[in-house]
Specification:
globular; six-stranded parallel sheet; Rossmann fold; seven-stranded parallel sheet
Length: 743
């Protein structure tokens, strides 16, 4: 009698995997690239593969190195693996690049001149140290901000460059041509302090591995299998570190998605993942393409857009969940109209039982959040901003502090915030002297400062700096009653040196801060006076809502990576805003492809409903400008979208006109049924520019016309596509012809 064949039960970590996931999990030896599309179960594959390595005895836990990009991801992976294989998971080398490199460096610190108890400096410590070294070398911190130079050094370290490897031509005239020497001096000073910055953790280990073969051989012998998450986000130093540790075994498994490489601005090198098969001989690639997050129409839209990129390995997402709703593409008159309509759509879906916490508004740049925040506050819609809320950002608080002190000289909190911002040589000692005078005379700080400039209480340099500051405040207060408050704001930000401070700052977030300052001035235009604006700000800052039903999430596309929501709104899809004109100007085709990957990331955050929108006009640098839909809108597949122009164009116009009439006006601006053709034609004129589309042939001097922002007026002169119009209420303005119509 034949014995019954008893099948072994499938291990829990393999149960339910699809074919591609199973292949990735069970391929344990040799170089393996797992191309994991958005929502394809990457985390499960990582943890299951780690469990498979341990459970099959292919590798001991202490022979496995698993690298993540965040501490949160490392904790989650360790927890999941512990649930699968038990306490053995604790013995895996699991952590971020920096954490694992620091662990190694403490064992071998003496080989680079450090002690094992070295201190790890943060960015503020780095800036303070550089400031000291610059002072000793007579490098002007106003011309070369220490934070900017720290960024230069960090970028060199991300590329694995020690000071002696930095090309003199690359260093150029930075820091008066002494940048490479400053880098070397900085490194020597760190050694003397028994300290390292974050970039040193990997850089020192690269030095040790290349100069001490015995140390490298020890790690190559101990570590038999390496797994890396988010490989598309690795920089050059991380890549070199992995190559050295992998050695001749080549048991390296990298999981990532070339289509989600969106951090080039902070050193990530998408080429690392694109070159994997050529870098590691005999490499196998497994593509995870079955998406468990989004519906069919959303995935088709994402795939069609990203297919335009040339620098990619290629994959096509699909789902068994069905087509779902088509992607809705909405056109709006302006940003305020866009915010109003999106808010209304959210409220409508809430009335149908939707979960507030499952809504997300994802913007390209931080300044775009302002109009949404103000609208959400106005209608009492609970929301959270990932990152600082607009009016809570430090640069916005700084600028508002200047305005507050001009409006109210007795505002001591505002005085304290800006007295030495930007740096004027008025440090702690000067502020203490002003405080003492204020207490003694029972005066506000500004009045006490006025008293001090006529005494010898302060050092001459500080006294002169304080006198200049007081003169500036007085001059701005005098102008406050004579010029428009938005012009005053621009004057203050420029003449104080605050704008220049951020212009000289070369850190990655500096351009965003400048955009936020511009948006702040734009926001002031909606108020009749500076005082009215400041009162509004006070109410906004005190307008916290109770979180009873959850909150709408408002965040940038970069911050949204790795997250998912039932309903996603992607506003601001216009040329120049998204893709960012600055990115294209700085990085050309490479920058454009990263912007397109960012669009792909945004689209694939949505589970069920996706709304993409653009506006026909935006206030850019304080001026109303016409805009055309983003080229990414043109790349959306027509069969997967609904061009919902009626929704967008009808929400914010009013003026007693019917929907059909409003759509007629929309069509004259190119945003009716022919908006796609119009935008494509305009894009062909200038692939990388941001130009309005207008027609002046229908207008003559003296014509009576209507503008949706400024109302009725008479044309005074015509210059190309620009009209100079005397508006009945708004006064004389220059506007683009495409934004006016004959009544």
């Amino acid at each position: 009698m034949m014995n019954d064949i008893v099948q072994k039960p499938i291990p829990v970590w393999l149960d339910g995997l699809n074919a591609a996931q199973s292949e990735a999990v069970t391929t344990l030896d040799g170089p393996l690239l797992v191309l994991s599309g958005a929502g394809t179960g990457k985390t499960r594959v990582l943890t299951s593969r780690l469990a498979e390595l341990v459970a099959t005895g292919t590798a001991k836990p202490w022979n496995i190195l698993a690298v993540t990009f965040t501490n949160k991801a490392a904790r989650e992976m360790k927890m999941r693996v512990s649930q699968l294989v038990g306490p053995m998971a604790e013995q895996v080398w699991l952590g971020t690049f920096h954490a694992l490199a620091a662990r190694m460096l403490r064992r071998h610190a003496d080989l680079v001149g450090l002690k094992s108890d070295f201190t790890i400096l943060d960015a503020d410590d780095q800036t303070r140290l550089l400031k000291q070294l610059m002072a000793a070398d007579d490098i002007d911190p106003k011309r070369w901000p220490p934070r900017m130079l720290g960024g230069v050094i960090s970028r060199w370290k991300d590329r694995g460059l020690t000071a002696d490897k930095v090309d003199l031509a690359e260093a150029g005239d930075i820091a008066n041509g002494r940048m490479r020497q400053l880098y070397e001096t900085y490194q020597n000073r760190l050694i003397a302090l028994n300290a390292a910055d974050f970039g040193d953790l990997l850089l020192h280990m690269l030095t040790i591995f290349t100069k001490h073969a015995d140390v490298l051989a020890e790690y190559q012998s101990r570590i038999t299998h390496i797994m890396v998450d988010e490989y598309q986000d690795t920089n050059v130093a991380q890549y070199l570190w992995l190559r050295l540790l992998t050695g001749t075994r080549n048991n390296l498994c990298c999981v990532g998605d070339d289509d989600q490489s969106i951090y080039g601005w902070r050193g990530a090198e998408v080429g690392n993942i694109l070159r994997f098969e050529s870098d590691f001989a005999g490499a196998k690639t497994v593509r995870l393409e079955e998406n468990y997050r989004s519906t069919g129409h959303i995935l088709a839209a994402a795939s069609q857009v990203i297919a335009r990129n040339e620098a990619r390995l290629g994959k096509t997402l699909y789902t068994a969940a069905g087509d779902g709703d088509k992607v809705k593409v909405n056109g709006y008159w302006d940003g305020a109209d866009e915010a109003r309509s999106i808010s209304s759509q959210i409220e409508s879906m809430l009335s149908e039982g939707a979960d507030l916490s499952q809504f997300a508004v994802l913007v390209r740049a931080g300044f775009q959040t302002r109009e949404f925040e103000e609208r959400f506050i106005a209608i009492g819609l609970p929301y959270r901003v990932v990152g600082a809320r607009f009016y809570e950002r430090s640069e916005i608080r700084d600028a508002i502090a200047y305005m507050r002190l001009i409006a109210q000289p007795a505002d001591d909190l505002a005085f304290e915030r800006i007295i030495n911002l930007p740096k004027r040589g008025l440090g702690t000692a000067s502020l203490q002297a002003i405080h003492m005078q204020a207490r003694a005379s029972d005066k506000p700080l500004l009045a006490a400062a006025i008293d001090l400039v006529d005494t010898d209480e302060l050092r001459p340099a500080a006294r002169h700096a304080l006198a200049d500051f007081i003169k500036d405040i007085k001059r701005w207060r005098d102008h406050a009653g004579q010029i428009h408050h938005t012009d005053l704001a621009r004057m203050v930000l420029d003449e104080s040196g605050y704008t220049q401070m951020w212009q000289l700052d070369k850190s990655p977030d500096a351009p965003g801060r400048l955009e936020n300052l511009t948006e702040l001035v734009n926001a002031m235009q909606d108020f009749d006076s500076l005082q009215g604006f400041l009162e509004h700000i006070a109410l906004v800052m005190d307008g916290d809502t109770e979180n009873q039903q959850g909150e709408v999430t408002l965040m940038t596309l970069h911050a949204a990576k790795g997250l998912e929501f039932d309903t996603v709104f992607l506003p601001g899809w216009e040329e120049g805003v998204f893709p960012s004109q600055r990115t294209i100007d700085e990085s050309g085709a490479v920058g454009l492809e990263e912007e397109r990957r960012l669009a792909y990331v945004g689209i694939t955050r949505a589970r069920h409903k996706l709304f993409i929108s653009f506006a026909s006009s935006r206030r850019i640098h304080g001026q109303w400008q016409s805009a055309i839909p983003s080229r990414f809108v043109q790349e959306l597949p027509p069969e997967n979208i609904v061009e919902d122009m009626a929704q967008g164009m009808s929400s914010g116009l009013g003026f007693g006109r019917s929907t059909s009439a409003r759509l007629d006006v929309a069509a004259t601006n190119g945003y009716g049924p022919g908006w796609r053709r119009m935008a494509a034609q305009q894009q062909n004129k200038s692939e990388n520019s941001w130009q309005p589309v207008n027609n002046t042939t229908d207008f003559s001097t003296g014509d009576r016309v209507f503008h949706q922002k400024f109302g009725m007026g008479n044309i005074r002169s015509i210059d190309g596509d620009k009209l100079e119009i005397a508006f009945d209420k708004a006064g004389q303005k220059k506007v683009v012809a495409g934004f006016v119509s004959k009544p």
